[in-house]
Amino acid sequence: MNPGPELGGSVNTMMDIGYGITAYKRLNGEYLVSIEEDLLAKSILYRWCPNGTCNGCDTVKVLGIDIDSAKITVEGSNTVNIAATINPSGSCRIVNWFSENSKIVRITEGHITGTGPGTTKIWAMVDDGDFPTHAP
């Protein structure tokens, strides 16, 4: 590299700039590329998609999450569906579901299946852990 006067060098000098590049492949085939620039002590993170089009949308700050039912009854091993609304509604986030007691119900992507008698809470949480809420 030949730094010019804009970098505080001269045309006749050579300079090495040390930096590291790390790429992480995501399950969907996209890559997160981290570039660490030691000279200025900064790190830059890029999202790269091999086919040129990244799926998804920009992350929007979540202000709240609501579950559509306050109380749900599941009889036997039947399945009941439940939904969560993320506010603002344009948020492109994933809702993770949890049961307080998996011996009573099992929940997968909003589908609640009875596994035993009793009462438990169902929790909905956005993918970054913000705004946990539950249906009693």
Structural class from helices and strands? mainly beta
What name does CATH use for the topology of the largest domain?
Answer: Immunoglobulin-like
Number of structural units classed as domains: 2
Q: Averaged pLDDT, please?
A: 72
Summarize the structure.
The protein is mostly beta strands and 136 residues long.
Structure description:
The protein is mainly β. Helices cover 0% and strands 39% of the residues. The protein folds into two domains: 5-48, no CATH class; 64-135, Immunoglobulin-like (Sandwich), CATH 2.60.40.1080. Strands 1-2-3 form a three-stranded antiparallel beta sheet, with no helix packed on it. It is elongated and about 60 Å long.
List keywords for this structure.
136 residues, mainly beta, Immunoglobulin-like, 2 domains, three-stranded antiparallel sheet, elongated
Write the layout of secondary structure elements.
Layout: E1 19-25, E2 31-37, E3 42-48, E4 64-67, E5 79-81, E6 84-87, E7 95-99, E8 105-108, E9 111-114, E10 122-126, E11 133-135
